[in-house]
Amino acid sequence: MRSLGIVILFTAALSTRFAFVCDDAFISFRYARNLARGAGLRFNLGEHVPVEGFSNLGWVLYAALFEGLLLRPEFWLPLTSAVLGAVGVVGVYSIGRRHLGLSEPMALGAAALLGWNPAWAMWSTGGLATVPFAVAVLLFFERVVLAERPSRGTVLVAGLLVMLLRIEGAAWVALILGLGAFEGPRHAERRWAAGWLVVAFVGYSVWRAWTFGTVLPHTALVKVGMGAERIDRGLRYVAVFALTFGSPLVIFAALPTLVRARWGRSIGGMLVATLAFGVLSGGDFLPMGRLLVVGLPFMALGLAVVLQQLSSRIGIVAGGAAMLVLIGVAVLPASGLSIAPRELLVALHFRYTDFAPMSEFDRWVRTKENQEGFAIRGRALADYADPSDSLVAPAVGAVGYESGLFIYDQHGLVTREVGLRAVPPGAPRRSPGHDKFVEASYFSEHRPTYLHSKIVHGRRSARRMRELVEKWDLPLALQSDYAPTYIEIYVPGRIERHFLVLMQRVEEGEDAGIQWTNFFEHTRRLAADL
After folding, report:
1. d(CA 327, CA 346)
2. Do residues 332 and 266 make contact, with C-beta atoms less than 8 angstroms apart?
3. How many helices (H) and strands (E) does the chain have?
4. Domain limits of the chain?
5. d(Cα 140, Cα 525) in Å, to the nearest integer?
6. What residues pair up with 450 in beta bridges, in sequence order?
7. What is the pLDDT of residues 341-394, one digit of tens each?
8. How far apart are CA 232 and CA 221, in angstroms?
9. pTM score, two decimals?
10. Alpha-carbon distance 84 to 516, whole Å?
11. Nearest CA-CA partner of 347 in 357, 339, 362
């Protein structure tokens, strides 16, 4: 157990290294806060029919517990996820020893292959239900497929957790139940749990239709429909993940060997399902293969099974050395390195709205920096704006959570009219989840208080303000209704001067022309002062 403790210790260190809270997590936190305050599961207060802009109901309900206690979920939920990440590593070791007959070194290798993978470490924080969901899937798999006589309660609870933590959870429950019926021990507990899980799914679907006005999750409707472009993007997504971490390439090449081992067909089925989900979903904008993390425990177990079989032919030392190599290759992306040539990763680029392709490590750095900037902007808006004001935004997580303003979402995740619209023919290719993007002026008929917002800082702030106004390119018809302005803000711990730049609605009785003139005159004076 001392060796397992070392594996867990390094897992914790790597999770600390990648500790951050994803901007999307703040969408769930805002739903949780409104629920805790008695407003129900809604993002924007005042909407007649709320929009289901989250994909993790159980995680939102868990966050609402902390919101109700006036505790910040951006601390407690990542902490919970990190603890469960360690539990998942222990679970892989335990399954390897108890059910798969792995030797002590191979079981430890499987645990390290999971816990030391930067994707697992990064999403062990992140604020989303990614790793908790993966651990729930692993637990349900163990109860249904591997366990001889599981208790009815543990099977049912594990299945409910899988269905509640992610919208695709019901599909994973169905798959695992099928694998259990095909390869697992025959026991009535599985049939009993399956019946109640079907009842729970039907009830959940009825509740969704009653609450949100649609049977299908809105987060799925925001995605573009099935087509060649979506499949191509999904294939690129999976390929980049496999080339970044190396181990997925090995396990999929070793599938013919794996399926001949005890429980190998079920483990292989989980891996193939993970691959298929990544492709059919069309990929994901967030770093380190978030949608594929659910398959990492099964990849680690599958590789350990294959290497143990191989060790009987090439020797224990050679098999152990192969495991160490796989672990080392998987750890490389923690430093932004990869075994794949950069040219190949560039060719497989799938985040089309990025200015240039970047590694998964660099994408994590950018995601972390963006979230911090969004939080600063949200707090500045909370200080400046009236609570009844409204804002158009392309990233609605931390900005929406910290500001509390009514948000019009340019990507449609929390705005129904955008999420349900069809992508216009000939629209440019965009990153996953960003296909239905609309310009801020799309919402002009709603007369939002702020069409645009941005934080600038440093000596070039005045110049950047003018560049922003040009980039925002307000239509001529709206230039009499909106005008740019800026406010200097205080950011704790920052020495440089910071400014909140806004495209603000002109109130009745005010002159837009004067406000435009004042903006450019004031920025010229500011440039001389900075």
Report:
1. 24
2. no
3. 23, 5
4. 2-347, 363-529
5. 64
6. 391, 504
7. 888 988 999 998 887 788 899 999 999 999 999 999 999 999 999 999 999 999
8. 19
9. 0.95
10. 53
11. 357
